UniProtKB/TrEMBL annotation:
Domain of life, source organism: Bacteria
Record GO terms (molecular function): formylglycine-generating oxidase activity
Protein name: Sulfatase-modifying factor enzyme-like domain-containing protein
Annotated stretches, region: Disordered: 242-261
Annotated ranges, domain Sulfatase-modifying factor enzyme-like: 14-313
Cross-referenced Gene3D superfamilies: paralog of FGE (formylglycine-generating enzyme)
Amino acid sequence: MLESTTLPGPIARKDMTWIPSGTFWMGSEDFYPEERPVHRVTVDGFWMDTHPVTVAQFRRFVKDTGHVTTAERQPAAEDYPDAAPELLKPGSMVFTPPPTAVPLDDYRRWWQYVPHADWRHPEGPGSNVGGRERHPVTHVSYLDALAYARWAGKDLPTEAEWERAARGGLDRKPYVWGDEPEPGGRPAANVWQGRFPWENLATDGFERTSPVKKFRPNGFGLFDVAGKVWEWTRDHYTASHADSGRELAPTSSCCVPRNPVAPPPDADEAFARRVVKGGSHLCAPNYCLRYRPAARQGHTEDASTGHIGFRCIVRDTGEAGS
């Protein structure tokens, strides 16, 4: 179980939303195998950032601490024994759409490792974040996100905490807004419209990320928990919930796991894999229908891309507004 973090005062709750304690059904049987089995989980109440950490917020952190992100550091050859020498440079993964339709069996057709791409240069050298101060920060690894959270006196959520918050009280619904992928025939989140990865219709108004709070919040008042950017969680990734080390007892109210977190794997890896949640602006029904609260993927702690960000929480045993 993770320790609580006590907020120093009301000012620290700015731009945070109270998520009440509760029991919910975690996972889904209707989409991808890693989301199974559905099981009941209880989490205590906590405060969560109302929206993903923005470029402007991350810039303040870097200015205050001098933090150098994973993407800005020289990779160690011993950590990447199979990497081509020309790729052992500071950089990050950048989405580069092909000009026409391509088979969807190899992500390298649309993802490229771009030297010197980082949070300040999201598309690589020559790009910048001017005008994107209120967009979610991207090209941040789990290690960068955790460093920011500690600087802010916060933490990263567990997978269960994140999913409880993202559902907004709509238990067992496929989307954070309910049952329909596009309620009223309009995009409800910053996601991909068209045929991925080459045809981006951008009917949501954005080809890449959008500023935070451009779409309606969920039932708890959280913005952008679907689409926009994947978000890091504390849990180590497993192929299914049944492999996560949790005791799954979906029918027994006396045995519902409380505040669970998946433990580290037994294997000794250079970089552990962590769960990311929420999908991104690159999620499309024809390829990655993962802008849903149950959806989950795994990324190594050092991974940074143009579609992964994060938000923080504070585990506070007090009542909302106290």
